[in-house]
Design goal:
The chain is of the alpha+beta class and about 375 residues long. Helix content is about 45%, strand content about 15%. It is globular, with a radius of gyration of 24 Å. The two termini are about 40 Å apart.
């Protein structure tokens, strides 16, 4: 293997491939060479050991011991426990392709004194992208698909956004304010509309200093929270708007007793994408014995439930299982035209192999209280001013 810390090491260009997105577009992915993946993993271990001491509590994406449901729980608890009346759903436009590498290296140099690590990161970034036999380079971006990209993204946003946002919350906000960030997905909850509008303007200005921008169409500021329905009704504005985060739609709902209930539903595009992604697989497996098909489809449904089976989302679980069962029925009917696979028969078969819909995740407040006894979005920050 090439010496990763010596001057002889040169990362190879990463191969560009495209993966389909639920909305029909394609996501460019950079696939590094095997040796470069190993080097990146080793570098990630070093960077995590250093930066985990610095990263703030409201940063959840791609960090050891943290996951999507930790971020979802934090947001749920924040909206319920703080005076949140407005939600800023911030979308950073083409984040991974827009990262300024010169700023990124400056941020790394601020914290790391080992020139070997800094040079190694520079070489990985300069390797280029191979597409259609042509290698292209750029002074921007960290390749989506690189093992090292998530931690580099967190380092970049730690200095560009997190430290700044925490200072703004402490010194500029006149009311309650919560922040949850998962990689480049950012949700901010604020008590006062004046704070929300000032923060949005300040955030745009802040990001532009570091080669980033908010998507003009996807970034939204909406009225949301326990008082949103009554306030909007007073002005004849209809039901409160919703927002999405990590595959879930957040909805201002009501409990059976008429109290505010924050609901989460699987985003329709996520549901449709999951079903469509397995349609080809079901068709390809139609010649296999029913037990083999059932075992595979059972794992598909089980995986969906493991993520989406949160309180208030029971209908989505039943709908997904129904659609998988219907795909299976159609496949079996095509296999044997004489064998009438009625809905009654496929229901019996599905009950043998597919898990029943049930809520698997506890209410967020219960799990959050266990994992985070103290409220983490107000993590202490250091003296750095970028």
């Amino acid at each position: 293997m090439r010496d990763s810390t010596g001057g002889a090491y040169r990362a190879l260009p990463s191969r560009r491939v495209y993966l389909p997105k639920p909305d029909g577009r394609q996501r460019p992915i950079a696939i590094a060479a095997l040796e470069d993946k190993i080097v990146q993993r080793a570098t990630v271990a070093v960077l995590n050991a250093i930066y985990e001491e610095d990263f703030l509590g409201f940063s959840y994406g791609f960090r050891p011991g943290r996951g999507t449901h930790d971020a979802l729980d934090a947001l749920y608890v924040g909206i319920n426990s703080r005076k949140v009346n407005f939600i800023l759903d911030a979308d950073i436009q083409s984040f991974f392709d827009s990262v300024s590498r010169s700023w990124l290296i400056r941020f790394v140099e601020y914290r790391i004194g080992d020139l070997r690590i800094i040079r190694l990161i520079q070489r990985l970034l300069k390797a280029g992208i191979l597409e259609d036999g042509v290698v292209t380079g750029s002074d921007r971006g960290t390749g989506q698909g690189w093992v090292i990209s998530p931690v580099l993204a967190n380092i970049y946003l730690h200095y560009v956004y997190d430290l700044w946002a925490e200072r703004w919350r402490r010194h500029e906000a006149t009311g309650d304010m919560i922040i949850v960030r998962y990689a480049d997905d950012i949700i901010v909850g604020l008590e006062h509309e004046s704070d929300a509008r000032r923060y949005l303007d300040a955030m745009r200005e802040r990001l532009e200093k570091f080669a980033l921008s908010l998507h003009p169409d996807k970034t939204r500021l909406i009225e949301f929270g326990r008082h949103a329905a009554s306030r909007r009704a007073q002005h004849g504005l209809g039901k409160p708007e919703t927002f999405t985060f990590l595959g879930f739609i957040f909805i201002c709902g009501q409990s059976r007793t008429g109290h505010f209930l924050l609901k989460r539903k699987t985003r329709r595009e996520s549901h449709a994408g999951e079903v469509a992604s397995h349609q080809t697989g079901v068709a390809a497996a139609h010649a296999q014995p029913i037990p083999a098909q059932g075992k595979w489809l059972g794992s598909v449904v089980n995986g969906y439930f493991n993520y989406h089976a949160v309180p208030t989302n029971g209908r989505a679980l039943s709908a997904f299982r129904f659609h998988v069962t219907e795909l299976w029925r159609q496949s079996l009917r095509r296999r044997s035209q004489k064998d009438g696979m009625t809905w009654e028969r496929i229901t019996q078969v599905a009950n043998d192999w597919l898990p029943k819909p049930r809520i698997r995740h506890p209410w967020p407040a219960r799990r959050f209280a266990v994992r985070h006894p103290r409220w983490e979005p107000y993590a202490r920050i250091g003296p750095v001013r970028i």
